[in-house]
What does this fold into?
Amino acid sequence: MIDRGNSSMVGALAGLMLLCLSIPAMAAWPEDAPAPFPQSTLESTVEIQSAGHLVLFSPVREIRDEIRSESMARLPVQGQGQLFQISRDATRQAARAHYYQQLSEGGAKILFECAGIACGRSNVWANQIFQQSRLLGRDATQDYLVAATTADDGQQWLTLVYTVTRGNLREYVWVEHLNVGFGTAIPGYTIGAGPIEGPLVVPWSGGVTFRFEWSADDRRTLNDWAQDGTEVVLASFTDLEQGESLEGALTRSRAAAESLAALLGKSGISQSQIRIVPVGPVVQINDPIRQGNRVEVLVIKR
It folds into this structure.
């Protein structure tokens, strides 16, 4: 049924999102990073905890000292980056194949990969993206991949693997293994392995009547997810307008979600499955895809 309580649900969601960087201590994939390439030596480990860690999902470019990429995101993450030197008896191609095989066997989805000059300049990857000067090498002898995995508890994980040959012919691999904040949208990836699917981000406009911007593919995806026994959560966000009170923003937030709920009812989703969470401007998310007036739709498997 549609929930009409404001405060407790807003507080619960806010608490959930603000605590999204906490990670339970577990010892299994994907909570643990892939096993290191056997013919490599660990040189350094960097702890990564950031509300806006830069991850690229397309080749990098540098324009007037600014990093550009067709698909990139600053994501709330916590994890590690590790730098390995590859043995002279091995190759970076073998190291990449080692990590690729582990990711594939673990059910990870490769979101992007590149090799050689198609990746962009090694200087930018080494010094501006990974901030590891040892990774500065030849543009023609580098490769990169980023893969996503969802654990049984719905937590999302990203694994980044970058290999390079330096001018002195020494070879290195950099591996980042990152827990991504709960509910964060990762470009090119949708949660599906755990008990939560989504979010589908649906921008909206209007006031008395509402207009929703979402594709036919998104609607079909939601109908596929929302089978009997699932709960459809409509978390509705708003910008705080000039001179508007928090109560006013929450009212607009709820009205937009109720309008979308009515549309979902016409598409065959039972009103008893729908739970409305009016978030308004209470929770801010550092993700360019998830800004402004929008409803984020998640489906929870009961």
About this structure: The CA atoms of residues 203 and 213 lie 5 Å apart. Residues 246-266 form the longest helix (21 residues). The longest strand covers residues 40-56.
